[in-house]
Hints:
The protein is mostly helical. It has 3 domains: 5-130, HUPs (Rossmann fold, 3-Layer(aba) Sandwich); 134-170 and 204-286, Serine Threonine Protein Phosphatase 5, Tetratricopeptide repeat; 298-464, DNA Cyclobutane Dipyrimidine Photolyase, subunit A, domain 3. It is 49% helix and 6% strand. It is built from 20 helices and 5 strands. It has helices at residues 19-25, 38-43, 48-67, 83-94, 107-122, 151-165, 203-216, 221-224, 237-241, 247-261, 269-286, 309-317, 323-335, 340-353, 358-368, 374-385, 400-407, 412-417, 434-440, 449-464; strands at residues 5-9, 30-36, 72-76, 98-102, 126-130. The chain has a 5-stranded parallel sheet with strand order 3-2-1-4-5, with helices on both faces. Helix 1 links the parallel strand 1 (5-9) and strand 2. The longest helix is centred in the first third of the chain and has 20 residues, at 48-67. The chain starts with a strand and ends with a helix. The relative contact order is 0.11. The mean pLDDT is 96.
Amino acid sequence: MNPTELVWLRNDLRLDDNPALALARAQGPIRVLFCRTPGQWRKYQESPARLGLRAAALSDLASRLAALGIPFSELSVDIFAELPAALASFCRQNGIERLWFNRETPLDEQRRDQAVSERLQAEGVAVTACDYDLLVGVPLYNQQGAPFRVFTPFYKRWLRELDRQYPASPYAEPGSQADSLPPPALSFDWAGPFRDDLWPGEEAAARRRLAQFCEQRLFDYPKLRDYPARPATSTLSPYLANGMLGPRRCLAVIQSRYAELGRDWREDGWLRELAWRDFYRQLLLHFPELSRGKPFRPETERLRWRDDEAGFRAWCEGRTGYPIVDAAMRQLNQTGWMHNRLRMIAASFLCKLLLIDWRRGERYFMNRLVDGEFAANNGGWQWSASTGCDASPYFRVFSPLRQSQNFDPDGSFIRRLVPELAPLDARQIHDPPSDVRRQLGYPAPILDYRAARQRAIAAFEALRDGH
């Protein structure tokens, strides 16, 4: 009889399209392990909402594994440094001869996996590390052998690699290996509340949403994605960020939908977003300083950020006096999610107009987001702050008023999230007159856009001039 293979799940709580799970099961009987590390999660400022969704996904996964006769266990430590000893002890007690896991890209996770591998191998336990949870699971380099620093050439190279690898089916779910087991009793004292009405915590719900999006909205996504009042985006980011949905499954559904119409799947606009996901994660492999809170452009470390606690609190609470910014922040605070166009608007307001260090915004988002995934959050904030890879030029400073008029033209999104402004018409709602603000109890703007824009540009130009 083959020895039992141990699959260590981390941020990949799914049965479908799970390389480690499928490849281990192909070798023989498996058992599955999850390690809770609440101290580490606190260090990463993971939000109660994200932890809540993780708990729901874990409960769903454990029940489904039990139905397949696959044993599921949970280890509890506080931080990553305690894992090598804990896993070694678990393997000894359970006669485990091989451990499987899917690689992860942040620096701490790479170091964790290296420490675990060294400890287990020293004790005679083989370790198999499967590909990163990316569509293109190998690091990509340009013609000079250097990492890509700009997205567009990366994307072209990425598409060529996809052509080389695919069509390839997603990894299959493991089949039943024994009679069903009773579902394990799990404790989720580390989890917080999340909007399960918006993101049910079952893998089947993620798969249904993917199918519905590709069936109903995929082709309209490029032209409607920037309008937050429209249900045009996939809203799959919490499932992708928490590993409840695999990237190969996303690609397979895209390809199937395009094949039905005889069109080229490589032209899909949403596929480009999956490439951005790979791009930001691969950056962590090539530039470990990103995992240490450093800007991609080291010269921007000398930027003179402002200390404006009142401005920061107004931004956090959605009372800046700029309706589209306030609507965005209230959406985040109420749901744990924010539309991508609004993320750019809100981030630009904080780091450019308020000239507050982007890392404060990055942390605030992580403390609130149900889809708070480090690589994407860091990449997005550094893009907005003009400190990052392929970032927005420093002189591009979003006008909240123009963004509001362009992407919420009739004000319907603002009315939904800033209800005190609901009585206003489409002309006034983007920038209510002073007397109207007083009547409705809505604050005056906390800054003057033109003056704040010039202040930001001057701060960046001072870097260029060597100050």
